[in-house]
Amino acid sequence: MYSQAIAYSILELAVVSKGDPVSTTFANSLALAQAAEAAGYKRFWLAEHHNTASVGSNSPPVLIGHIAGGTKTLRVGSGGVMLPNHSPLVVAEQFGTLGNLYPNRIDLGLGRAPGTDQVTAQAIRSDFMQAAHSFPREIEKIQQYFSPDNQHAAVRAPVAEGVDVPLYILGSSTDSAHLAAKKGLPYAFASHFATAQLFNALEIYHREFKPSVQLEKPYTIAGVNIVVADTDEEAERLYTSILRMFIGLVTGNRDFLQPPTDMTDELRGALRHPTISQMLKFSFVGSKETVKAQVEEFLQQTGVDELIAATAIYNHEDRFKSYALFAEIMQEINATAKPEAAGVHQVG
């Protein structure tokens, strides 16, 4: 039995399947968000990636408006804005605008990585490395722009002042854990692809956490890859699209998401590759029964407050079904939470 209900959310990369126009991908993202809202998902975050054919989520603020405008209660946000790519003032203005358009529904997740390779990062912003080193100070600037006390400053974002847009620190290493704890902000770890430092990062964050105006006690979110189908065999088949996408990332072949195939000996061999196996360590693949057991073990090991699920399934209908089954899994898990604690420690 869990001491509290575990929130469950979606991290959307707007993955572009081979043969689909990007416009179809964006329409499918909205349809997924609407289904997620009905299925009890807490939030729907849009990632920021660049120069990758298979990922359509390049501009989180634009897609957030698209998703929030087509839903009613679902929290929508960035997972995240890669801050070194952007001006803190412009980010505050963008999310202040979104916060005014969709009150109490917008999240601002901030990361330090470029969301791409170094060559592309330089094309986005020539002083990227300097901006990355300034990440803590850039967060403070955003907090300042959102503060109602900034009204008399020389540089302002009036559209953001006093608007309730909670900040989240995203990370894939222990560096981000120290920062999130120091600033007293919720912490989302990218364990859907960066698994090595998850447990150390969570321990550091809890140990060093300092309460803030936004957050009284630690709040953690962990990313996982989810593929749920009627049978283990069908889920494994759908998973081959994700596996081939990660093989492409490792080999530099950034193609569109490929149709699923049978799990060949070659693909099974790739799963044993040290880099790929490490990246996909927290991929939960199988029937409802299989994935539920995997999720319960992960929750017991990590103690996180929330799971944010990512998946790259070729067919839209199969992806819908996977997320619907995952929602059922989380509802079954949450049914075992202590009644007096269910829903406690909600953030955003």
TrEMBL record:
Superkingdom assignment: Bacteria
Domain Luciferase-like: 22-306
A GO molecular-function descriptor: oxidoreductase activity, acting on paired donors, with incorporation or reduction of molecular oxygen
Coiled coil: none
InterPro entries reported for this sequence: Bact_Lucif_Oxidored, CmoO-like, Luciferase-like_dom, Luciferase-like_sf
Any one GO cellular component localisation term in the record: cytosol
NCBIfam families: oxido_grp_1 (TIGR03558)
Family per record: To bacterial alkanal monooxygenase alpha and beta chains.
Protein name as catalogued: Luciferase-like monooxygenase
Organism: Neolewinella aurantiaca
